[in-house]
Amino acid sequence: MAGVLQDRYATCLRTRRAHQFEEFADLANGRQWFRTTLSPCLDPVTGAVWRIMSISQNITAAKRLQVEMQQAAFENPLTGLLNRRRFDRAVTTNCDRAVYSGEAFSMVVVDLDDLKGINDAFGHRAGDEAIRSVGQTRRASCGMARMWPE
After folding, report:
1. Are 86 and 134 in a shared domain?
2. What CATH number does the domain containing 104 carry?
């Protein structure tokens, strides 16, 4: 960690330009994220860097919100499984990987027959639990998504 920070200061010194980066530290109160800006202070006469000002902001709350937003954008809230948007990305990524690597991948489609019957007979909570149960069973061994309804 010290070496990375030293390199960042050296880059700021060499380029004589401000640099911004994000990093985290595992502290007693959990992982904390920081955005740090290094700004060179130039001597008005010689133009040489005579000091580097460093400002760090704790951005942990923003990082947590970013993770929550990504989950909301790519996960089905009922099951925690991938949603259609994330599934489409995963299929594209795996197809591309298969083309470039020459390795195959497989996809299995599971349809819960008569889910409407479960909902009608036992209520929507039972139907939701059936979806969650199937999702939890299969998620341990492979990537899985809930496609419909969104």
Report:
1. yes
2. 3.30.70.270
Residue 94 lies in a domain: yes
Q: Letter for the amino acid at 133?
A: S
Contacting residues for 90 by C-beta, under 8 A, at least 6 apart:
82, 143, 145
pLDDT at site 150: 37
Q: Which residue has the higher pLDDT, 140 or 82?
A: 82
In sequence order, what DSSP letters do the residues of the chain get, joined into one string?
A: -HHHHHHHHHHHHHHTS-EEEEEEEEETTEEEEEEEEEEEEEPTTT--EEEEEEEEEE-HHHHHHHHHHHHHHHB-TTT-SB-HHHHHHHHHHHHHHHHHH-----------TTHHHHHHHH-HHHHHHHHHHHHHHHHTTS--B--S--
